[in-house]
Specification:
mainly alpha, Growth Hormone, Chain: A, disordered C terminus, single chain, 2 domains, globular, 2 strands
Length: 483
């Protein structure tokens, strides 16, 4: 229930990302019918004077998210994970309400920016909370639920905007984006009410010396199951943190270079893999493949993304993170090669574009979509978790902004075949990095992961083969409690 409650923040996150897909054309009065003829939108829904204003409105959420990501982690470290999430809910609500009631460009931009601040803070805080409350054996499954909530939010926004919350005019349906914005407030209210009832992260409570509250929260989260080992681990982690002279600031990230570099690299590969390009240009790809209803096919792509993300959840704690990442990047790279062949070969094989587009999204949802967020909360040590999570989330949003803003210019310069060739190279290099540098965290406690990453590269590669292999180091290092 705790994970489901905070995951509502990610649902609103997804609705913010998906909002522009059905709404932007109506807001800019650029809707066209199947014959590419203009369809005048209702005047009450038209607020942009040019496509440039619509593009700025869509992109501004990334700028707000960057600011929110940089502030969300430190805030959650200062006041707690639960209070930070409680603050995100009214920020979401005010932003959506402001957008729904706006009739001019500037108020819409302000609402969109602060909505971005909320989702940036969510991306830095919610994955950390989920990882800290989840039991070790189910941490992968619970961690993947964050990405599942995001794609559900994207699908909700598109489904409601295209088929449910519509304004009918002259026999045509237009997205009633004001009602769509108001519908998101329902999730914001549910987020606030449900989060009030859940416990604070036991790890955070222990880190600020509230041991009794940490034990009480952990017992409540575990529903009466044995918690002595976890309580002991929390106590030892708190003692190590108190004895450390580091402050948890940016300078301390250098003492945990391997953990930080892994998290940042996964965020970079996730965004520069080109997933935004495939989603952004999916209508173009389907039209080039000879499909006559690209909008419906786009919805099927989103539905597939939800299904495959759900499929990944039980696999996180069975196959493991490293296997799924490798499989995901390999499959996506082959799909990129297929799209290069399609666009470079005269666009004759429409089936190839279809298979590769659907396959690309499937493989992304299986590993590269959820795992970077999951591992962000797993491998960053407690002392730098807040700062590291903020930096990783900010890196993700920066890369997202870059890929979104450059895909059109890249397409004009090197065509779609060149664009997907670039993304394929990124995926191949990312796959090699995962094989050589990323440890398997399945079934390992936070203490084991921290000990594993603190070793030299050579010893880490030798010891990470099995969870038990790390135990002699833990027992003799004094850095972690005996297991």
């Amino acid at each position: 229930m705790s994970v489901m409650s905070v995951a509502l923040a990610a649902v609103v996150f997804g609705m913010a990302l998906g909002f522009t897909s059905p709404a932007n054309d109506v807001m800019a009065d650029t809707v066209k019918d199947a014959g590419d003829r203009p369809l005048p939108a209702p005047s009450s829904l038209v607020v942009f004077k040019s496509e440039a204003e619509a593009a700025l409105f869509g992109a501004l959420v990334n700028v707000g998210a960057l600011c929110g990501a940089l502030s969300g982690g430190p805030l959650s470290e200062r006041i707690g994970r639960k209070p930070t999430i409680l603050l995100i809910a009214p920020l979401y609500t005010i932003s959506w309400l402001g957008m729904a009631l706006s009739s001019s460009f500037v108020p819409l931009l302000v609402g969109r920016f602060f909505l971005g601040v909320g989702i940036g803070a969510c991306s830095a805080t919610v994955p950390t909370y989920i990882n800290e409350v989840a039991p070790t054996s189910l941490r992968g499954a619970f961690g993947a639920s964050f990405q599942l909530a995001i794609v559900l939010g994207i699908m909700f926004a598109n489904l409601l905007g295209a088929y449910v919350l519509v304004y009918e005019k002259d026999g045509h349906n237009f997205c009633h984006w004001r009602q769509l914005a108001m519908s998101a407030i329902v999730f914001c209210i549910a987020l606030f009410v449900l989060t009030l009832a859940i416990p604070e992260s036991p790890a955070w409570l222990a880190s600020v010396g509230q041991q009794e509250k940490a034990q009480s929260a952990l017992k409540r989260l575990r529903g009466g199951t044995e918690t002595r080992e976890e309580i002991e681990e929390l106590r030892n982690a708190s003692e190590r943190r108190d004895s450390s002279e580091s402050s948890g600031g940016l300078r301390d990230l250098l003492h945990h270079k391997r953990a930080c570099s892994i998290v940042l690299m996964l965020m970079v590969v996730q965004q520069f893999s080109g997933v935004n390009a495939v989603i952004f240009f999916q209508d173009t790809i389907f039209q080039a493949a000879g499909m006559h209803d690209p909008a419906a096919l786009g919805f099927y792509v989103m539905l597939l993304q939800v299904v495959m993300t759900a499929v990944s959840i039980p696999l996180m704690d069975t196959l493991g993170r490293k296997v799924l990442l490798t499989l995901s990047m390999t499959g996506m790279a082959f799909c990129c090669i297929g799209l290069v062949i399609f666009f470079a070969g005269g666009r004759q094989a429409g089936w190839l574009a279809m298979v590769c587009s659907f396959g690309y999204i499937s493989f992304f949802s299986l590993g590269l979509g959820p795992i970077p967020w999951l591992m962000m909360g797993e491998i960053l040590p407690p002392k730098i978790k807040a700062t590291g999570s903020s930096l990783a989330a900010a890196c993700n949003w920066t890369c997202s902004f870059i890929t979104t803003e450059t895909v059109s210019s890249l397409q004009k310069e090197i065509h779609f075949s060149g664009v997907f060739a670039v993304y394929g190279v990124v995926l191949i290099l990312g796959g090699v990095y995962v094989v050589l540098r990323v440890p398997e965290t399945k079934g390992k406690s936070f203490a084991e992961i921290e000990a594993l990453l603190s070793q030299t590269n050579e010893s880490a590669q030798t010891r990470e083969l099995t969870p038990a292999a790390a135990r002699p180091f833990i027992e003799t290092s004094g850095n972690s409690p005996p297991t």
